[in-house]
Amino acid sequence: MYLTNIDLAQRAFLKKMQQIKKYMRKRGMSKDVIEKVVDYYDYLWSRQGALDEEEVLNELPPSLRQEVSIHINRVHIEAVPFLRTRDDSFKDLLGLSLRIRIFMRTDSKSGIF
């Protein structure tokens, strides 16, 4: 059953990629831009598979969403030396404030940061 779900997710991903490429070709986008978009989606697939973490969290009831967000973000908070010494309630509040954002390596060069 699990392998079947992976196969279905992968087929859905490949279909989505075909649609995206078709759209971009129809709009006359350069091969360079198309390649960057494809690379972005390939990266997402390699990191998350078919799972959209933000969508999953949004489907949870608020109390459970908070608990999961705190758990997911705690590892990132603990990786920052000056935050390690903060009390747990501060870390929990900070964990609730963090949002998932995925950037390409070139984004920092284009002024996003």
Describe this structure in words.
The protein has 113 residues and is an all-alpha fold. Helices cover 72% and strands 0% of the residues. It contains 6 helices and no strands. The chain has helices spanning 2-26, 31-48, 53-59, 62-78, 81-84, 88-97. The mean pLDDT is 82.
Quick rundown:
With 113 residues, this protein is mainly alpha-helical. The chain is 72% helix and 0% strand. The relative contact order is 0.09.
Task: Report Rg.
Answer: 18 Å
- List the uncertain runs: none
Based on DSSP secondary structure assignment, what is the total number of beta strands?
Answer: 0
* Ends apart, CA distance between termini: 43 Å
Number of helices: 6
Give the SSE layout.
Layout: H1 2-26, H2 31-48, H3 53-59, H4 62-78, H5 81-84, H6 88-97
Which terms summarize this structure?
113 residues, mainly alpha, 72% helix, 0% strand
